[in-house]
Amino acid sequence: MKKAFIFDLDGVIVDTAKYHFLAWQNLATSLEISFSEEQNEQLKGVSRVRSLEKILEWGGKTISEERFTKLMSEKNEEYLNYISRMDTSEILPDVPRILDYLISKEQGVALGSASKNARIILEKVELYDKFHSIVDGTNVSKAKPDPEVFLIGAEALGVSPENCVVFEDSVAGIQAANSANMISIGIGNPSVLHEADYIFKDFTEIKEEFIDTLVTT
Ligand code: B16
Ligand code: MG
C-alpha cells in the first residue's frame, strides 16, 4: 500500500538553522539582548513570529507592533541573503538517497515545514521536483506542535495519517507528528528527540531495509 513520507526542511534536508542564528543574533544585538546557540536550538521548528516573541521575552523587552513588524522583515531580508548563496552542497548527508529510494518505490513524498521560505530553499538546493506536495509556513495557520502542517500534507497526497511517516529534527515537530497519529522519526540527538518512535543521528544511519519495513507495515 502507498504510504506518505513527510520531511521537515530545516535540520532534516538542509542546515539552515545556522543562517537563522546569524540573522537572529544580529537582531538581538541591535536590541541589546544576548542570544546564544542554545537559545537558537529552542527556535527550531518555531514560526518566525513566535521566534521574535521568545527573543524579546528572554531579553525582557517590549516593543511596538510597528517595530516588531520591521524587525521581522529585516531579519528575513538578512536570512534571504544567506539563502541566496545556497547550493546542492548544503543538502544534508544521504537525503537524496532516501528521497530517490522512496520515489523508486512509488511512495508519496511531501515537505512539511514551518518556513515561509521553504520553496526558495528547495529550489536553491535543486530538490524542489522530488516532492509531490509542499506544505510550508505560507499554507498553515497553526504552528508546530499543532499537527496542521502534516495533516495538510497527508491530505494532499490522499494518504490517511496513520499511513504517514514524518522525519523531524525538532521536539515541536515530533509532537506534531505524534498528535497527528503518524509515525515519527527523529533526526538528531536522541536525548532531545526521545518522544519519537525511531531516532537516527542522520540519514546515513537509515538503511533501505528499514524504509521497506515502513512501506509494508
Ligand atoms: P521562516 P522547519 C523552521 O523550519 C525553522 O526551524 C525555524 O527556526 C524558523 O523560525 C521557521 O522555520 C520559520 O522560518 O522565517 O523562513 O519562515 O524546521 O519547520 O523546516
Ligand atoms: Mg526542522
Automatic annotation (TrEMBL):
Positions with a binding annotation for Mg(2+): 8, 10, 168-169
Cofactor: Mg(2+)
GO terms of molecular function: beta-phosphoglucomutase activity; magnesium ion binding
Swiss-Prot/TrEMBL site (Important for catalytic activity and assists the phosphoryl transfer reaction to Asp8 by balancing charge and orienting the reacting groups) positions: 113, 144
Active site: 8, 10
Positions of substrate binding: 8-10, 24, 43-48, 51, 75, 113-117, 144
A matching Pfam family: Hydrolase
Catalytic activity: beta-D-glucose 1-phosphate = beta-D-glucose 6-phosphate
SUPFAM superfamilies documented for this protein: HAD-like
GO BP annotations listed: carbohydrate metabolic process
Keywords from the named record: Carbohydrate metabolism, Isomerase, Magnesium, Metal-binding, Phosphoprotein
CDD domains according to UniProt: HAD_BPGM
Keyword Magnesium: yes
Cofactor binding note of this UniProt entry: Binds 2 magnesium ions per subunit.
Family that this chain belongs to: Belongs to the HAD-like hydrolase superfamily. CbbY/CbbZ/Gph/YieH family.
Descriptive protein name: Beta-phosphoglucomutase
Organism: Aquimarina algiphila
GN (gene name): pgmB
